[in-house]
Amino acid sequence: MNLLSITTRAAILVVVSAAGPCGGEWGAVFAAEDSSGVGAIWAYAGTWKTSTETFDTAHSKAAREQTTLRNACWKDGSYLACNQYVDGDSKVLIVFTYNGKNKSYTSYQIPRDGGEPGMGKMLIEGNVWTFPWQSTEGNTTTYYRVVNTFTTPGVIEYRKEFSTDKVHWTVMAKGTETKVAGN
């Protein structure tokens, strides 16, 4: 799922329990992986056509949406940053870091209007990248996640889900992103 969708649809993002680089076709996608580990995020760079179907649930309303997402990314040292555009409008700057000790990623979302920045986690297991978060109201905690599955290096199938027990998940939205241009 695109980074902005993650940010705006749930105010989340990223610490990753990352799998190492893969071979074959996936080797090219993750070839940017370097000693800092943050290079794996480069897979999101470029322009993507997105198509999303949202379902009527306790936490979402039915809708369909198609957008053009562009992640203008660059890497400097141990940081990878992406200025994320939706339909030509810059929406958020996302900065990623990597902790080699526990093989985890953290993302920091900086809103363009100077609002409060966000921070999140991301879990990577091969071609499945998961963005988990939770929300607590009173004594009730609801767990959310966006699951991105890279079916090829240029196609992501994603879904957004919620759960009250982390066992049974209800799909709130699903969609596809297809890469149409590089960074």
What does the model show?
It is built from two helices and ten strands; from the N terminus they run H-H-E-E-E-E-E-E-E-E-E-E. It has helices at 3-10, 24-29, and strands spanning 46-54, 63-76, 79-86, 89-99, 104-111, 118-125, 128-137, 140-152, 155-163, 170-181. Strands 1-2-3-4-5-6-7-8-9-10 form a ten-stranded antiparallel β-barrel. The chain starts with a helix and ends with a strand.
Alpha-beta classification: mainly beta
Strand content: over 45%
| Beta-strand segment tally | 10
Instruction: Return the domain count.
Output: 1
The percentage helix is under 10%
For the termini, the CA-CA separation is: 17 Å
CATH class identity? Mainly Beta
Gyration radius, rounded: 16 Å
Spatially, the strands of the biggest sheet line up as 1-2-3-4-5-6-7-8-9-10
The description of the largest β-sheet is: 10 strands, antiparallel, barrel
Number of helices: 2
User: Shape from CA axes?
Assistant: globular
Identify the notable features of this structure and list them briefly:
183 residues; Lipocalin; ten-stranded antiparallel barrel; 10 strands
Short description:
The protein is mostly beta strands and 183 residues long. 8% of the residues lie in helices and 56% in strands.
Helix-strand layout with pairing:
Blueprint: H1 3-10, H2 24-29, E1 46-54, E2 63-76, E3 79-86, E4 89-99, E5 104-111, E6 118-125, E7 128-137, E8 140-152, E9 155-163, E10 170-181
Antiparallel strand pairs: 1-2, 1-10, 2-3, 3-4, 4-5, 5-6, 6-7, 7-8, 8-9, 9-10
